[in-house]
Design goal:
The chain has about 375 residues and is of the alpha/beta class. About 30% of the residues lie in helices and about 30% in strands. The mean pLDDT is about 95. Bound molecules: flavin-adenine dinucleotide. The site of flavin-adenine dinucleotide (FAD) has 34 residues, from helix 1, strand 2, helix 2, helix 8 and strand 20.
């Protein structure tokens, strides 16, 4: 069996299969990167709390029985033959799980490609972390260029962590922070979390521009142009680029929203034996690590029942949680549940206990996925 992508979704599939089948699992896990980094760690990198190497878990440490890791970049997928081409050769398998995440399309927002100012990739967060010490006065704009985007609370967290960073350096009064967000509230799945965030923005002097996205950037005039033509001036732009399915995954078949179409119950693509999970798929659930992980578990259970000749497992019903950094070490959590007729978001207020919970969440995943 081949699993493409060793992120939240792919690592979960591999570790469940390894846990159930041990050395018999026979999983080939392929990723072009040399290590895994949690999405939330990019915010730590952004505000200089951690270096890139401190938050990366190298794949060479992966020690799960029955899982073979190959550092290769996928260049083509033939879903009919379940054949994968990489920069190192070809692989074929009876069963194929594609978990390549979402790709960032900076060029879809005129001006963003040239400016390159985004904090959603590790490299982008690191670049901006080098620019932050120079930013002692002026206008910072956190701007979302299109929905859907990963981890809906993350841009709000960036605004509050930037506020904290500037306060600690004694230059907050000389700086403004504006947050441009396509939805009218910061976290659509939880009005309660959104209320708490909006209250905190008001306390911290963060201006929230809801219901608008950044349509283009004019770097020469230092202006972000919004989708209604309004202009917001910036000296520092922290962008959330438009997301799309990875180009290499297009042969799997795209749904109307440009992400990979899957059966919402089984996460199988239109091709038998080929599954797709995580940020790259078209499902009415947020693009978040815990959701990708839950999808990985459902696919792993389906693969196990196929191999064992058992009845299929229960269908996928999206649920998961997102932690929200409020600054000052305070962490809240939203639990989302998409199993009913209406999505439900339960908000848990910021607390030290939730900060510990988040820490435990990260370390338990690394222990499970890497087997160390
Ligand atoms: C700033 C930020 C904060 C976030 N905070 C949270 C949070 O607090 N909680 C939460 O649950 N989620 C959070 N997320 C979202 C979370 O990181 C993603 O939703 C999650 O990683 C998706 O998992 P995935 O398996 O679909 O993709 P990914 O984890 O992105 O994994 C995809 C993998 O595929 C590999 N890959 C891609 N293309 C190729 C190719 N052609 N060849 C080989 N390998 C390839 C990549 O190297 C990568 O390892 C955050 C994201 C960001 C950006």
């Amino acid at each position: 069996m081949i699993v493409l992508g060793a992120g939240f979704g792919g690592l979960e599939v591999a570790s469940v299969l390894s846990g159930e089948m041990g050395a018999e699992a026979d999983v080939t896990l392929i990723d072009g990167n040399d290590g895994f980094t949690f999405g939330f760690a990019k915010l730590e990198v952004l505000v200089g709390r951690a270096g890139v190497d401190e938050v990366r878990s190298p794949y060479r440490d992966l020690a799960r029985p029955g899982v073979r890791f190959l550092r290769e970049t996928v260049t083509a997928i033939d879903p009919r033959q379940r054949r994968v081409t990489t920069d190192a050769g070809e692989h074929e398998a009876e069963l194929l799980v594609v978990a390549l995440g979402a790709e960032y399309d900076l060029d879809a927002t005129p001006g963003l490609g040239r400016l390159g100012s985004e904090f959603y990739s590790v490299a982008g967060a690191e670049r901006l972390s080098r620019a932050l010490p120079e930013f002692t006065a002026g206008r910072a704009v956190i701007g979302i260029c299109g929905a859907p985007y990963k981890c809906p609370p993350a841009p709000s967290e960036a605004a509050l962590l930037l506020d904290e960073y500037l306060r600690q350096r004694g230059c907050r009064d000389a700086c403004s922070i504006t947050f441009v967000c396509p939805s009218p509230i910061p976290v659509t799945s939880s009005p309660e979390a959104s209320r708490a965030l909006l209250e905190r923005f008001a306390q911290r002097g963060v201006e929230f521009v809801g219901g608008r996205r950044v349509a283009s950037l004019d770097a020469s005039r230092h202006v972000a142009v919004l989708d209604n033509g309004d202009e917001v001036g910036f000296d520092l732009f922290l962008g959330v680029p438009r997301h799309r399915a990875p180009r290499v995954a297009e042969p799997l078949g795209l749904a109307g929203d440009g992400f990979v179409g899957v059966d919402p119950d089984t996460l199988q693509t239109q091709f038998p034996g080929v599954y797709a999970i995580g940020d790259m798929v078209s499902l009415p659930v947020p693009k978040a690590g815990m959701l990708a992980e839950g999808q990985g578990r459902v696919v792993a259970a389906a693969l196990l029942s196929l191999m064992r000749g058992d009845p299929p497992p229960p269908p996928y019903r999206g649920s998961g949680s997102c932690y929200i950094e409020f600054g000052g070490g305070e962490v809240a959590r939203v639990d989302v549940d998409f199993s009913g007729p209406q999505p439900r978001g339960t908000y848990n207020q910021p607390s030290a206990a939730l900060a510990a919970d988040k820490h435990e969440f990260g370390s338990s995943r690394l222990a499970r996925w890497f087997g160390s």
